[in-house]
Amino acid sequence: MFFLFTKKSSFKRQQRLSTIKEDLSGRWDLSRTFTLPGEGEGNVFIEMINSIFSRLHLFVVELTKGNVATATVAPLTQAIAGKLRSSSESLAQEVEQIEATCRSLAAGIGTSADSAGKALEQSAVIVDAIDQTSHLTGQALHRMQAMEQEVAQLSVAIGELDQRSRNIGTIIESISDIADHTGLLSLNAFIEAARAGVHGAGFGVIAQEIRQLSQESAKASQEIKALLLDISALIQQTVTAVDRVQEEVGTGLEGNWKASTSLDQVNEKHRQFHHHLTSVIAAVSSQKQAVGQLAGDLGTIASIGKEGRKDSAQLAELADRIKQLTDQQLQATGIFILPQYRKAEQAVLLLGTLPDICQPGLGTDRALEEAIRSLGYLELVYLTDTNGRQISSNVLRNNQTITSDTSARGKDWSRREWFRKVRETARPYISKLYRSEATDTFCLTIAVPVYRGEAWMGVLGADINFEHLLTI
pTM for the whole thing? Predict the structure, then answer.
């Protein structure tokens, strides 16, 4: 009888050890305590496992809290590093573009300076030409003034000559009148001498001679008069020509005055331009030097920017790596089931026993809202029927705001692992850690079966905020 009892006890111990071995080959539930029936060395081993689990529980919780804190900061660090990388690249590109622009500007300024130097040389030639032209214009003006005086004197002399010619004509007219009168008197004297006969013969000869002389005098005076008329006509032509010359000289003199005045103005303006051009060349030279120095400084900044871009790229890669490693490290803790998981599991199981959950209806969403409001680690709760079709709204927490999304009703979750595991085992299901796409935080899903009496009604799912779960 004792042998049978010992054999039966040994069989139970072997069965329990197999169960423990099987449990340890899967996820480690750090909330449970292992036991063996009876006594023996195996109990010491079980006590050691329980002690290890107890210490491991404390270690994993603290490690996980640190990982959660790191994982929470990692996305922000990643985002900041990404912005820094983008900003560094943009800054480096802008600096490179500004540097290229400055170098182009320096080259353009150099070309402008060269052109301005050539323009200054041409301007100096123009100044010399203007000076020579001004000198020649002054000489021409002086000559025109002298010509005007000479023409004026010539006009006066020709006027006097014309007046004397007119006076001579008057005298010739008087001589012609005297000759005519003398001829008439000599004719009368000749007639009287003829009447006197012999006594008047000598007187008649004299009278005849006088008459001939008077006729010759009249003829000579007519010839002189005709010559004087020709001379007078020539004098009038000369006067007209002199007047025209004098008019042309006056016009030329006025034009010379205007040309001289305009040339003086041009000279003054161009000398101002020449002075300004000299100042511009000096300013352009200084600007060229400043832009060249700026381009050099920008080149240094561009080099620093390239280094900064390289460093920011490495920083972004490190941030990505840190995020990846923290995610992997947190997900690696999925092998453990912490006592907090079990507390959350019990809370979800209790929620599944509420009348408005067991008997879905108008009060279901309200019951889910009250639950998520009282349990700070719940982020999202939802209820399905036995076919995996969602029959409640998505009741979710957004910071301190609780909302219900009715559009989620009717969604088919029958292929999701959390639904299949509950349906297949009729036991609660605790998922591994994952990063939520909606909140970018680490979560786990707890799904429990819902019964009304003995009848299975569906599955109640809850997404748990892992960071808040660790605080309970």
Answer: 0.49
